[in-house]
Amino acid sequence: MTVYFIGAGPGAADLITVRGARTLAACRVCLYAGSLVPRELLAECPPGARLVDTAQLDLDRITAELVRAHEEGHDVARLHSGDPSVFSAVAEQMRRLDAAGVPYEVVPGVPAFAAAAAALKRELTVPTVGQTVILTRIAHRATAMPEGEDLATLGRSGALIVLHLAARYVDRVVAELLPHYGADCPAAVVAYASRPEELIIRGTLDEIAGQVKEAGVLRTAVILVGRTLGAEQFRDSHLYSPDRDRHIC
Predict the structure, then answer these.
(1) CA–CA gap between residue 53 and residue 79 (Å, rounded)
(2) Is the dihedral of CA 8, 14, 18, 21 positive or negative?
(3) Which residues lie closer than 8 Å to 160 by C-beta, 6 or more apart?
(4) What whole-number distance in Å separates Cα of residue 52 and Cα of residue 34?
(5) Where is the Tetrapyrrole methylase domain (predicted)?
(6) Percent of the chain scored above 90 by pLDDT?
């Protein structure tokens, strides 16, 4: 049998992909992060499916549940918020399943940064303004950042930065980015993107920390900093230009 790592999307139950919903509906066992995955998604599971909330389980217990379901002949849906490719802790689960000889597949989902951009009604890559997006986090109580991936280093690029898991440390984020982006650089924080309680905060880099604290945002949010957030005067993309030779592949 197979374990399916399914991206459940950023929060709204209807933002799971068609493939994700179909896979979920075919699995007799579902492990989900109860603190992050919308419970409405569990209605997609087949009647009588075994549902396991992993919010209080460590890696060993999660792995044991996956292996047990496999040995019992059941396909398993492992629901993760957002997309499994970013900050999902999927890599260590895959490593454990490889060691146990359990096959698995990955079903991508809508990542939080994409939902945040949609809420802001912004394209994160704008011609002549910015063509690079950095997805990162900061070191605090969790795993340390690798050498060279601190904000002071990444900020030298001037690229649009999207920070996950950092709203509680917004003062530190601002302090490390200010020397590279400037006080007037556009910034935004989107909390609970795509959910009914979605909250959007817009401002400049020198004022965003105060706005975040005033709003009481501590978690389930992404911070975005970069010039593309405020870009208005920019060159049209070559993609749809009348000067483009459409006979060239």
Answers:
(1) 10
(2) positive
(3) 124, 125, 130, 132, 133, 134, 224, 225, 226, 227, 228, 229
(4) 9
(5) 2-209
(6) 82
CA–CA gap between residue 226 and residue 185 (Å, rounded): 6
Residue type, 192: Y
Angle of helix 59-71 versus helix 90-100 axis, rounded to 10: 50
C-alpha span between 86 and 81 (Å, rounded): 10
Average pLDDT, the chain: 93
What's the whole-model pTM score? 0.90
Of the candidates 120, 131, 187, the residue with the CA atom closest to the CA atom of residue 159: 131
Instruction: Give the separation between CA 48 and CA 203, rounded to whole angstroms.
Output: 48
Yes or no: say if 206 and 175 are a contact pair by the CB < 8 Å rule. no
Give the model's confidence band at 238: pLDDT under 50 very low, under 70 low, under 90 confident, else very high.
Answer: low
Instruction: Give the model confidence (pLDDT) of 176-190 as tens digits.
Output: 999 999 999 999 999
